[in-house]
Amino acid sequence: xxxxxxxxxxxxAEANSIVDVADAAARPLNAEEQARFDALxxxxxxxRDAIEAQSAVHAALNDLRHDDxxxxxxGPAATARGRVDFGQAFVDSEVMANLRAExxxxxPGSRRITTGAVNVGRISNALLTDPELTPHLDVIDxxxxxxxxxxxxxxxxxxxAPKNIDHHTATFTNVAAVVAEGVAKPEATLAWAxxxxxxxxxxxxxxxxxxxxxHNAMLRGIINSFLVNGVRAKTQANVAAGLAAxxxxxxxxxxxxxxxxxxxxxxKAQTNGAIIGAAAPSILISATDAESLDxxxxxSVVLAPGQMPxxxxxxxxxxxxxxxxxxxxxxYVGDMKQxxxxxxxxxxxxxxxxxTQFIENKQTIxxxxxxxxxxxxxxxxxxxDLTP
Length: 388
Hints:
Elements: H1 3-24, H2 31-64, H3 86-91, H4 94-102, H5 151-154, E1 156-158, E2 164-173, E3 189-198, E4 200-209, H6 210-215, H7 219-245, E5 250-252, H8 258-276, E6 282-286, H9 287-298, E7 314-315, E8 318-323, E9 330-334, E10 339-343, E11 348-352, E12 362-375, E13 381-385
């Protein structure tokens, strides 16, 4: 690893440690932490620019070697014939060396990692030629990829909302028509309805002794994680329940099987959504019904040798939003951005005392949030019955 790369890895590791401390306590950076974090980011930018400049130089050299029938190859990425294995070239790159130095114990599962570009040279045309030695096999209706999208990422979340909300829904009557010259144009109707909503508190707490927190430095973070994740799960359940109970949703009865029912619901969502300008439909479905859908599809799947079935990420080209907090029996098809979660903010974690905890050397850790569900254009969402 170059000196520049090693220094940048040290800076990123230190910056990450500052963020990890705040995340473990479920709080934003304090003033001292923010100042240190900003200083580290500022010091790392010129180093990053220098590394990128070096990469550009090496990329230019690789381009000059393109026409060399036996290009020079060194290191683990080189093969016996002097050619470069492109996957190994990526593994041996400075970008990956930087990443390994930043996370010597492995990348945490909760952290999203991005990397810079890696130049691995040009791919020979010979590598792209099919010698037609392998017979073709058509794969029919094979679910590919797994994408269990978080429900809160699929809907509209409005933070900083007041406790009492004047939610408005709109009903649009489309009367667009071809009009002859000199004839009055038709007037469309847009009717608004005001629905008062009041945010609900979702909370839970855990008592803990001061000694336990003192003797186990990780205990506070563990408690915070359980409390926060539990509140977020209940929040998603409240969103799903609010959507299920909302008046004005279009409906689709069960027809033949899950796939047929969902396809008919997509048509209704597309038809209704076109009138109010809704986005392309997605499907909110419970984890139980998603399993039934996958097992239903697997009966007609033809797999290539060695190919394994995977959890479906879409059906009829509509993305699946699989939620373990949604009751089974119904799926919701349409523009999920029409669903709104009004909230004061993310889950807040606080510490306090209740009753005789002070003299018992205890404290209470409390996690809570506030929110309420509303739906804007209910007609753009179809409630599809998935029960035969």
